[in-house]
Batch of 2 targets.
Target 1
Amino acid sequence: MEPVKKDAKTNPSATANLFSQVFFCWLNPLFRIGYKRRLEEDDMYNVLPEDGSERLGEELQRHWDHEVQKAAKELRPPKLTKVLIKCYWKPYAVLGIFTLIEEVIKVIQPVFLGKLIQYFENYDPDNMDALYEAFGYAAGVCLSTLILAITHHLYFFHVQRTGMKMRVAMCHMIYKKALCLSSAAMGKTTTGQIVNLLSNDVNKFDEVTIFLHFLWVGPLQAAAVLGLLWVEIGPSCLAGMAVLVILMPTQTMFGRLFSKFRSKTAALTDNRIRTMNEVVSGIRIIKMYAWEKPFSALVNDVRRKEISKIMSSSYLRGLNMASFFAASKIIVFITFTVYVLLGNTISASRVFVAVSLYGAVRLTVTLFFPSAIEKLSETRISVRRIKTFLLLDEIVKSKHGFLQEEKQEPNVEIQDLICYWDTSSLLSAILGELPHDKGVLKVKGQLTYASQQPWVFPGTIRSNILFGKALHPQKYEKVLRACALKRDMELLPDGDLTVIGDRGATLSGGQKARVNLARAVYQDADIYLLDDPLSAVDAEVGRHLFEQCICGILKNKPRILVTHQLQYLQAANQILVLKEGHMVARGTYSELQRSGVDFTSLLKREEEGPQAPGVETESRSPCSRTLSQNSEVSHTTSIRSVKDGTEQLPAEPVQTVVEESRSEGTIGVGLYVKYLKAGANILVLIGVVLLQFLAQAAYILQDWWLAYWAGEQEKLNVNGTVTVQNGVNVTEQLNLDFYLGIYAGLTGATLIFGFARSLVMFNVLVKAAQSLHNRMFNSILRTPVRFFDVNPIGRVLNRFSKDIGQLDAALPWTFVDFIQIFLQIIGVVAVAASVIPWILIPLVPLVIVFLFLRRYFLQTSRDVKRLESTTRSPVFSHLSSSLQGLWTIRAFRAEERFQNTFDAYQDLHSESWFLFLVTSRWFAVRLDGMCAVFVTITAFGCLLLRDQVEAGSVGLALSYAVTLMGMFQWGVRQSAEVENMMTSVERVVEYTELESEAPWETQKRPPPEWPSQGLITFDRVSFSYSSDGPVVLKDMKAMFRPKEKVGIVGRTGAGKSSLVSALFRLAEPEGRIYIDGVLTSEIGLHDLRQKMSIIPQDPVLFTGTMRKNLDPFSQHTDEDLWNALQEVQLKSVVEELPNKMETVLAESGSNFSVGQRQLVCLARAVLRKNRILIIDEATANVDPRTDELIQKTIRDKFRECTVLTIAHRLNTIIDSDRILVLDAGQIHEYDEPYTLLQNHDGIFFKMVQQTGRQEAVALLQSAKQAYNSRSRPSTSNGGVGVDGNLVIFETAL
C-alpha cells in the first residue's frame, strides 16, 4: 500500500513556550499561510506522539483484554466503561482544576459588580476614597473577565483532546476487531453497522469529555451562589433557587426524552441509509426493471417516520432552548416579586448582583449539568453498542506453515470433515473461515487465495498485486504476462500505477478478476486456493490464464481450483466432484472416465442443489457482504481490442474520493433564501422575523423595567417626600400594583414570544430538510445511469447520510441558536450605548478588528474543516474495502499491514482534527479578549462619566456587558458553524438539480397489449454513455424477428452490454430503435422498460421479503409467485425458509448463492410475461447445472418470446436461431450458428476453436443438429414489416 502521507511538519505545540501555549501563538504561521492560499494536507502538523493511533489503540486494547480475562474469571460480562475510566482518568482529573478556577471567578465577579454599583447609589462627588475603591472594583471586574477568557479555552482544548484520544483508541480497536470477525459474527452485524460505529458512536467521546467535570462543579457552585445571595437579599433568594432546582430536572427530562427520540431516529436513519445504499448500488437494475416507484415509496415511508421523530425531537430542542432563554427571566421575576411582597424596597445594586449571580450559576445548572447527564447517557448507549461489537466471535487463528525442522511437501489433509453452513464450502474451511464440527483438517504450508468475487482495494494496480511484498521487476512482469494483464497495463493511462477507484470502479469485471488472480500468484505461497477465477473472463482469456498461469507459473505448487468449466479437467491431477457438500467421486480424469462416472451426466442428471465438478470443487456460497455490492460498470475492456482501454475509464483519476465541487469563498444569500423557502412560504418567513424581534424586545424591556423601578425608588429614598394626609404624616410609596403588574406582563410576553419563536423556527427548518431530501432523492432516481458510473457510491451516499444528517439535526439547532445569540449581542450593545452614548466610539475599531479577525479565521478554518472531512473519508473507505476483502486479507496474513494503514489514515485525520480544535480555540481566546476590552471600557467609562449616570443604568449596562463573555465568541463560532453547515445544504441543493433522463410516462402511450410480437429493429443506432464519451456502438443496423432466439457474442469490450443499454435507453441512443413498429424514443421510459424483461449480469436481490423481491408492485397472486418459483426450481428452497415467502433476506440477499440469486432474477422474468427477454452474461458465475436449468426454462417458458442472450459460454447459445457477432461496436457477422461456423475467417469460428478441441467438436455438432431441425422462413433478408413499415434486415457481413 502506498504511504498515506508524504511529509508533514513537526508539531510546534510540543516546543512552544508558556505564553505561546496559553494564547495559542504558535498557530500564527499557519493562519498566515491559510490567509494567502488554500491549505493542503502537507501544511498540517504531525500528530503528537502521544496522540498516535497505534499507541493509543494498543494501550486501550491492553486494558480491554485484561478486563475481558478478568471478567471471564469472575463470571461476569466485561465492562468497557470501566476500561475507559481506568485508561484515562488521571490526565482528565487534573483538568478539573481549570473548571474549578473558572467557576470560582464566575461567582466572585458579581460581588465586584455589586460594590461598583453601590458606589453609584451612594454617589458623593467629594469622596475620593470611595472613588479609588470603585476603580479597584472596576479593575477586579475586568481582570476576572480576562482570566476567565484564558482558563476557559485552555480547559476546553485539553478536554477535547482527551476526547479525541478516546475516540482514536476506540476506532483502532473496532477496526482490529473487524479484521478478526468470524463468519458467524459477520452474520450478526453489517458493514453499515460497523461504519456507523466508526462514524457516529465514537464521536460521542468527543462530546462527553467537555461536560463531564460539571457534574461535580455544578452543585458546588450552586451552593456558593446561594450563600452570597442570602447575604445580599435574604430568604427571597430561596424562591429563585427553587425555580432553578425545578428547571434542572425538567431539562434533564428533556435530555432523556431527547436521547430516546435519538435512538429511535437512529434506527430509522440506519434503515433509510441501508435502503438508499441498495438503491444506489442496484440503480441499474432498478432502472431496467422500472422499479423506481416501489423503492421511492419505500424510502419515503422510512423517511416520513424518521422526520416525524426528528420533528418531535426538534420541538423538544426548541422548548429546551426557549426555557434556557427564559429561565433567568423567570428566576429573577420570582425572586424580586417575593422580595418586594415581603415588604423590602428594591435597589439597583441588589437587583444586578442577583441578576449576575443567577447568570453565573444558570449556565452551569441549566446547560452544562444537564448536558453532562444527557451526553453521559448517550455515550453509555454508544459504549454498549461498541461493547456488543467487541464481544462478537473471532475467527480461530489456525497455524499454517512448517515447523523449522520438518521440511516436507506442503499439503492439505482432510478426513470426515463436517461443516455446517448455507452450502458447506470446502475452501473456506481450508482457509479457516468456517468452523468445522468434526473431522480432521490439516494444512501444512503457507496459503494464498483468489476469491470468487474479485476484490480490489483503493490504491494503484501495482499495490493491489504486490499486496505488501517487495517489487521484483522480472517476477512481476512474468506474473502480469501470465495473468494476461500486460496489454491492459499498456492501455491504461498510468500503466500499473493507475489508481483504482472505490471498489475498483475504473476496472472491468474481467480486469478485476485478473488483478485478483495476479495478487495470489505473486505471493510466494505453498498452497494456492483459486476460487473460480476463470468465470469472469471470456473463453480465450480463460484458456490463457489456465495454461500460462495455473498450469504455467504455478505448475510446481499444489493448487486447489474450483471451476465450473469442464474443458480444463483433463489437466487435473486429482478431481473431486462434490454435490450437496458430499464427495460424489474422486480420482484422476482417466480413472473417473474408466469408473464410468460421466461428469457431464453427473451434472445434468442430479435434480437437487447446485454442485460442480472441478479440480477440487464445491458448491458455492459467496461471502462478500459489503456496504456496496458492486454494480459492475458493464462496458468491459479486453486484452485484445485496442480501443477498449479508453472506453470506460472515467476521466478523473479516482484517488480517495475526489474532492467534490465546492464553491470557494462565502456562501451566497441566495442559498439561505433557497433553504428557508424550502421550509415555508414568504409570509410565514416574515412572521418568523417579526417574532424574533418581539421576543428580543420583551427580553430587554423586562430588565430595563427593573432598573427603572429601582431608579424611581432611589429618587424617593433620597428626596423622602412626605405628604400630610388627614393630619397624619405619610412617607410616599411607589404604587406596587402598577410596577409589579407591568413587570409581570413583560415577563409573560418574554415567555410567550420566546417559546413561539423557537418552535416556529424549528418547524420551518425541519420542513426544509424534509423537502430538500425528497427533491434530492427524486432527482437521484431520475438521473441517467452514467452519473452513478462517474460518482463513487460513497459520495452519493454521503449526501444522504452525512449531509442530510446535518440538515436534520445539527443545522436547525445551530441556526436557531445563532439567531438568538446574534439578537442578544445587538441588545447588549444597544443597552450599553443608551447608557453611555460615547461607548460607540471605541466600539467602531473593535467591530472593524472583529470583522477582520472573523474573515482571517474563517479563511483558514474552512480549509481545516475541509481537510478534516477529506481525511475522514479514507478511514471509512479503508474500513469498508477491508471488510469486503476480509477472507483475502486473512488468507494473505495481511491483517497487520491493513491495521497499520488504518492507523496511518487515523493519524492523518487526527492531524486535521487537532488543527480544528486549536484553530477554534485560537480564535475564541482572541474574541473573548475583545469582550474583556469592551467590559473594561464600559466599567471605566461609567466611572469617568460618574456625574451623568444613574445606578440602575450602570447596573444594566455592566451586567449585560459581562454576559458577552463567552456568549459573543459562541455566537461568532455558531455563525461560522452555520456557514460551514450550509455547505451541506449547498451539496444537497446541487443534487436536487441533476440532469434527469427522459420522462417515465409521456403523452404518447403505447397500446396496452404492445409489444404483441416482439420484433426489434435497430436502424442506424449509435450509442455512447455520455455526450463526451467514446461511441460504443457505431451506426448499427439489425433486426431481431419475433420469437427469435438470438445469441450475442464478441470479445470483451465489443459492445455487447452497450446494446442492452441502448435498448433500455440507459443513455439516449442516436438513430432509431423500433419495437413492433413503435419508436422507443417517443414513449416514456417506464412504458418501455416494463415491457422488456432482463436477467442482469449481477443478480441483485434487495433487503426485504422474498415476495417484495419478486413482485414489488404486488400485482400477482400467491399462486403466480409459487408457480414462478416452481418453474425455476426454487420452490423447495423458499419453502424451507422460516417464513416462506415473507422471509426477510439478508443484506443484498447474501444468504443465497450466486446461482440461486440468478434464479430469482429468472423467476422475476417468468412473472412479467413479457414478449422480449434479455439475458446479460447471466451465466458467468453459475455452475453448469443451474445454467442448464436456466436454458431449459428459457426454451420452455419463453418459446413465444424474442430472446437476446449475451453469452460468455458458447454452449448456451450454439443452438440459437441466429448469432450476432459484435466487434468494436460494429456488427461483424449475423447469421445462423452453423452458417457462421462455415466461415473459417470469422470471429465466431475462432472463438469456438479457442474452447479446446473436444468442446469445439461438440459445439459444431450441436449447431448442425439445430440447423437441420429448423424450419426455414421464406423471407430471409428484408421485406415489409408487420405494420407496413419497411424494415431493414441486416445482411451477414
Note: The chain is about 60% helix and 10% strand.
Target 2
Amino acid sequence: MNTKSDLQSPLVDGESPKKIDKTSSRFMKNASLNNSDLRQTHGNDHHEEEEEEEQLDNSVESDDSPGEQFQAREASFVEDLSTWRKIPVNNFESVDPNQESFMGNKIHTAKYTWWSFLPKNLFFQFTKLANVYFLIMMIFQMIPQITISDGRPTILMPLGFVVLVSMVKDIIEDSKRHSSDNRENKSDILCIPYPDQMQYANQEEKGIFKTLKWSRIKVGQIVKVLKDQYFPADLILLNSNDPQGVCFVETKNLDGETNMKSKTAHKFTIPCTLSDEDAAQFTGQIHCQGPNEFLYRFEGNMTFEPKRQEMLESESNYNGGDTTISLDVNQTLLRGSSLRNTEYIYGIVIYTGHESKIMKNSPNTRNKMSKIEKKTNMFILSLLGLELFLITFAATYSTIWNHTNYDNTNQYLGWTISESTIENSIILSFLVNLGSWLLIFVAFIPISLMVTLEIVKFFQAVFITWDATIFDEAKDMPAKVQSSNLNEELGQIEYIFSDKTGTLTQNVMEFKKMCIGPHYYGHSRKQEEANFRRDTLRTISETEELKIDDSRISGDSFKTLENTSVSDSNFEKGKDGITNVSFYDPIFFLHRDNPSNENYHRIHRFLLHLALCHTVIIEETEVDNKTQISYNANSPDELALVNGARFFGYFFCKRDNQNNMIVRMENGVEESYELLNVIEFDSARKRMTVIVRCPNNDIKVMCKGADSIIYPRLKSREFVQETDESLEKFAAEGLRTLLLAEKTITEQEYYEWEERYREATLEIIDREKKVAEVEDQIEYDFDLVGATAIEDKLQDDVSNTISVLKEAGIKIWVLTGDKIETAINIGYSCKVLSNEMEQYIIDKTSTDDIIDQLADAHKTYLKSGLSAHALIVAGDSLLKITARDHVKEEFLKFADKMRVVIACRVSPKQKAEVVNLIKAKYPGKTTLAIGDGANDVNMITAADIGIGISGLEGQQAARASDYAIGQFKFLRTLLLVHGREAYRRNSYVVGYMFYKNIIFVMSIFWFGIFSTFSAQMIFDELFYQMYNIVFTSLAIFWFAIYDLEYPKEVLLTEPKYYIIGLENMCFSTYKFLKWVFYAIWQSIVLIWISFIPFEEQGGTLWLGGNFVYLGIVIIVNISVMTSTNSHTWISLLFQIGSIVITIVAAAILNLFTFSKLFGTTGPQFLSLEFYYILLMMMMGIILVDSGLNYVNKKLRIRMMKIARGIRKKIKNFRHKKSTDSEKKKRKSKRHVHTGFAFAQEPGHAPQILDKIKLDNVRRKSMKYSMRSKVVPMENNDVMSRSTITISGQKNSNTSRNGDIIF
C-alpha cells in the first residue's frame, strides 16, 4: 500500500485527485459514500456555497472587526491549501521530512513557568506607575549630594514588601493553574505506542493497546477511548462497539450543552477496525485542514487499503485497491468532549495540545486591573505633574535667593568649599535643590498606598471566602477569590454576560403537568393541598362507587421521583426508578383507570402519543444480573416526555430490527408500532412528526410542537379554550409547554404523500424548500390530543437574583449555544424575560435583512408603550453584524437601550467577541462574565470580571476565573454587598492615602515660605518614617475591612444602593480633586496656626514642626472617624489609639538626645496655649470637614433620587407616546408566552433514520393500488439506487445526476 498520497487539494465535487483509483474517482464525483457522508465535503447545492463565499468576500472589505476576522479566517481555511496537512496514520516512519513536526499533546495554561516567573512578574509589577516612581526615588536617595537619608535607600524596604506580596499572591494563583495542567497532562489513555514511546507505556498490560499519558500522545496514532473517558486530543472516528459505528459524545465543555450528540464512523472504516488487532494493522494517510478554532467545521480525506475487502465488495462503487474517503465534522471527536453510552471507540489523533480546537478557542490568561487601579495611575501622573511643578518652583526660588544673597548666606551658614562651589553655580545649585525637594516629596505619592491596598484586598478576599451566606453546602465549597485586586470592580458592574446551561439552569427537565381534554392534571405537593385533593378524591370515589386503595391515595404510588436510575425491573406500580418526572395528582390516576370516565380514552391516546412521538434510543446494560434500560435522547425535553409516558404506564421498551417501536402497558401487554417516517424538529418548523402503523393497521400521524404552530393545524376547536387556559397557567409558573395532536390517514393517502416526499428529496434545486412543502401537506387537520408542561429546573433562586440585579441597574446578556426558542423559554423561566417586555428578534443571515430587522425594531421601540425591552440575536446574525462597522454601531446603539439581550447559537469564541464589542464601545463600563464550563472560559477571561461556577461541567471555568462560586444566586451577595462595599471602601482608602500624604508633604512645602524653600525638614526623621507605618495606618485598615454603610440585609433587599458604583460616585475626578483640596487648605491652616504663634514666642523649628505633626495625625484619624458608618469599640480604639500613641511617642522621644525632639515636647505639653491653639485648629478643620462630608452625602443621595426620577420619567414618556387606543390594541394582540419545550437538533438519530430510509426503499419496491395492499415488484434492482432523505438534515447523499449512494 502506498501511504503517501499525492493528493494536492481538498476533495471538491466533480474533481478527482491525481493517482487515485476508479473507486475513489467515482466516490469523489458523488462526494458521498454512505449515511456517514450525508454531510458532503463541498456538498451538493453548490450554488448556495457560492453565495456564502460571495458574502464572505464582501464581508472582509470593511475594516478589521471580530466578526470579519472570524469569517476571513474561516474562508481562508477552505481556499488556502497551504494550511492543509498530511498525517501518516499509525505509521511513524512515513512522516514527510519536508513538513514541520507536529505539536506535542502537552498543554500549558498557566501564566508563568519556573524560569519566566521572575522577569514576567517583575515587568508586570513595574507597569504600575507608583512602583516605577518609588524605584526612581530609591536611586535618588543614594546620591550623596541630594540625599536626606544619609544615602540609605529607605524606600527599598516598603517597595520590596509591596512587590513581594504581589509576587506571592501571583504564585499562589498560578500554582492552581499548574496543578490543573498537570492533572490533564498525566491522564491515562489506551493507544498503540510508537517504538520511541514503549519506555513510557505500561509494560505489564496485555494486548496491543498500552496505557500512555495524554502528554505522550502524537499525531497519527490510533487510540482507544473507553466509556465516560474524555478524548485526549482531536480524533477521527474509525469505529465503535456499535455495529453501525455510532457513538455518543457529551460536548458540555465545548458548547455548554449536556444533551448527547451522535457521531458516526465512515462505513468503509468500520469493517477495517472490528477488533484491537484490526486497529493495529490499520494504516493510511489523512489530508486535512491545519489546526484552526472552528468547532463545527472539518474537511479532509483519508486514503487507506481496506483489510476486509470481502465486506466491501457488496458496495456497487468499490472496485478494490486503495480507498479514499471524505471526512467531515460527523467523524470528528474533539478534545474536551467525553464518550457516553458507548463502550469504546477507535480514533486517529489529528490535532494535539495547543493545536486542538478547544485550546485554539482558549485565550491566553491576561492580567486584569481594576478601574480604581487604572485611575489611580492617572491620578499619580497628575500628582507627579503637580509635584514637578512645586519642586521646580521651590528649587528655582531657593537657587535665585541663594545666588542673590550668596555672601550673606555663605557667612551665616558657614558653607564648606565644596558646598560653596555648588551654591555659587546656578545650575549645580538648582539641581541639588531640585533633588532635595524631590526626596522630600517622595511621600507626596504614598508608597503605603500600594501596601495598604494589597493587604486590604487580601483581607476582603478572606472575608468573601468566610462568608457563610455564599458557602455552597451541597458542594462543600466556599467562594474562592483568585484575583483579589478586582474586589472593587464587583461594585461597578454594568453588564453581566451569563452562560445558560449549568449557570442559570440545571439542564434537567421534569414532567410536571398536563392538560387532556377539559381536565388539568398536576398539582403542588403541599400538605394542605394534598389533604384537599385526598378529600376530594374520596368524595369522587364514593360518588362513582369505586374502591380506592388508601395507600395509593396517601402517596407511595404517586410520590415525586427525582434523579434515580431507570430500571426495567422496577417498572411496577409505584414507578420507582423513573427519572425526569415530578408529578402528583391522584385524580389523574382515577380517570386513567376508570373506563367509564369521560376522559379515559383521551388519556390513553395522550399517553400513547408520548410513548411514540420521539427519536429516543434505548440502551440496555446488565447490572447485578438484571437488565436495566436507559434512554439516550437528543434533548432533555424529549427525555422527560418519554419518561413521563413510562411513569404513567406506557413504557417504550425497545425498537426491533424492523424499526418497530414496542410499547409495554402497565398490565404487561406489549404492542408493536411500525415507524414509517420521522419528520424532524428544526427551529423554523417548531414541531416534529412521526408516522406509525398501529397494530390494527391504522396509520397515525402524530405531531407535537409549539402552540402557535399546532393551533392553526387543528381540524376543530374542541377543547382549545380549555387547553389555552391551561397553557397560560403553565406559562405563569415558568413551565415549558408542548401541544400534542394526531390524525388517522388511509393507506392511499400515506403512499401518495410518501411518493411526493420521495420525489422532493431527489430534487436538485430548492430541495429543502420542496421537502418542507411536502411535509407541510401531511401536517394538517389534526385532532387536539393535549398539552404537556415541563419544568426546566433552574439553579436555586436564579429568578430572584436576576430580578434584583436588573433592579440594581445591571444589564443582563445571556450568551448561549442553544436555539432561539430554548433561550427564550429559559429567559421566561428565570425572569430575564417577561410578558411585559417588548421583544425584538434578529435572526436573518444576510446583512441587508439584518439592517431591515434593526430598522423595524427601532421603529417598534419608538412606538412601544412598554417600559422594558429585550433583544434576541442569533449567532449567525451576529457574525454578519460584527463584519460591518456601520451595522455593528447601529446594533450596539440599539442593544444599549435594552434591559436584556440574549445571543443564541454562539460559539465560545463569539461569546468573547460579544464581550469585547461592549468593552470597545463603552470602555468606561465594567463587564462581568459568568459561566461554568470550558466553553465559557473565553468569555470569562475577556470580561473585566470573570466568575466561574463550580458545577457539573467541570472546573475549567472556575480555574480560569477571577472569582469562583458554587451557585448563580451567590452573585447577588457578591455584587450588592461585597462588591459595593469594596468599591466604596477602597475608593475611600485611595483618596485618604493621597490626602494624608499630601497634607503631610505640603506642610513642609508651606514652611518653605519661612525658609526660602531651602528644603529644610521640620519633622524628626524617625517620626517621618513612622507616620505611614504606625500613626495613620491602623484606623484606615479597620475601616477598609469592616466598615459597612448599611446592614447587609438592607443592601440585599434594596438594590438601589448599588447605584454608587454604577454612577462612580466614590472615585471620580471630582472626588480626587476634593481630597487634594482638603489636604492643601488644611496644611495651610496647620502651618500658619502652628508657626506664627510659636515664632512670636521664640519657639524652635522642631517645636513648631512637632505641633504640625501632631495636628496632622489628629486630623487624618478624626477624618476616618467621621467617615466611619459602623462604629465599634475596636474602631474607636484604633482611631483614638493612633492619636494617643503619637503623643506618647513624642513624649518618649523628648527624653533622648539623638532625637530632634529632645527637650521640646515637654514644655510644649505643659503650655495651655498649646492645647488652646490645638483645640481651636481641630474644631475649625473638623467642623468644615464634617460639613463638607455632610453636604457630599446629601448630594449623593440627591443624585440617586435624580437618577431614579429620570428613569421613571423615561418610562412615563414611553408610555405616553402610545395612545390609549394603541395600548389597548397592543394589549389585545399580545400573547402570553407559553414556553415551547422542544429544542432538539435534526440529524442526531442516525440509528433510527437509517432504518427508516431502508424501510422506505423497501416500500418503494412494492406496488400499491387505491383499494388493495402493497404487492412486491419483480425487479428490486431499484433498491440499490434510491433512498429517502429525512427532512431536517441539511446535507444529503444525492449526487448531481440524481443518483443516490448509500
Note: The radius of gyration is 38 Å.
